[in-house]
Amino acid sequence: MAKLFAYHQFENVLDQGTLAELVDFTLTNEANYTLSNVARVGEKVIDTTSRYSLTLLKPSKFKHVFIEKLTALSDDIFYHLNMSRFKISKFEFQLSAHGNGAFFKQHIDTISHQSTGKSSRVISAVFYYHLTPKEFEGGELVLYPLPFLPGDDQPVVINPMNNKLVVFPSVAPHEVLPVTLQKSDFSKYRFSVNCWLHK
């Protein structure tokens, strides 16, 4: 018994000019990327046995680019995720970079607030981008079914294709498979913009 949450993929999300600006912004800010953290009982810690990647927490003007894009796609997002529309109270963003050996073990995106014990993250959206031609291997997103719900669904493996947006419920278990990259050049990494829509 296992049931997979609904998910959806959007391709060619940004125009080529905006995509090029995002790549340039990413490479220019290489020195500002730091080790990614994970949530542990209401606080964030670095645990490279669970998550090994780099993160930039302030995506600057691109926050507004993705707010506009996600807002424009919101009808399709709610429809494909089989969700009733709700008022989005907040958009949360971070940029991630995955080099050789980077990964994120199976987890969910609902972070419980230390004081309330509740999370307002409802929808996760991941936008993938990289320089072309692509030089890394791996880094796929795996969505896992819930084993206690009725169904015969199998895990779904999604390739991190350039200019692709993937959306899924934040409670859905998922994983980033390890990246293989022969070069240590930051510009060859697997990049993503991680977005969360709060209720």
Structure report:
With 199 residues, this protein is an alpha+beta fold. The chain has a single domain, classed as Jelly Rolls (Sandwich), CATH 2.60.120. The chain has 3 helices and 16 strands. The chain has helices at residues 16-28, 62-72, 74-80; strands at 8-11, 34-35, 38-40, 43-45, 51-52, 54-56, 90-98, 103-107, 121-129, 137-138, 141-143, 156-158, 164-169, 174-176, 179-180, 190-198. The mean pLDDT is 93. InterPro entries: HIF_prolyl_hydroxylases, Oxoglu/Fe-dep_dioxygenase_dom, Pro_4_hyd_alph, Pro_4_hyd_alph_FE2OG_OXY. It holds the Pfam family 2OG-FeII_Oxy_3. This is 2OG-Fe(II) oxygenase.
How many beta strands in the DSSP annotation?
Answer: 16
Q: Which parts are unreliable, with pLDDT below 50 for 5 consecutive residues or more?
A: none
How is the largest sheet built, in terms of strand order? 1-13-9-16-7-6-2
What's the CATH superfamily, by name? q2cbj1_9rhob like domain
Number of domains: 1
Question: Can you name the CATH architecture?
Answer: Sandwich
Major beta sheet, specifics?
A: 7 strands, antiparallel
Number of helices: 3
Describe the global form.
Answer: globular
**Percentage of residues in strands:** 25-35%
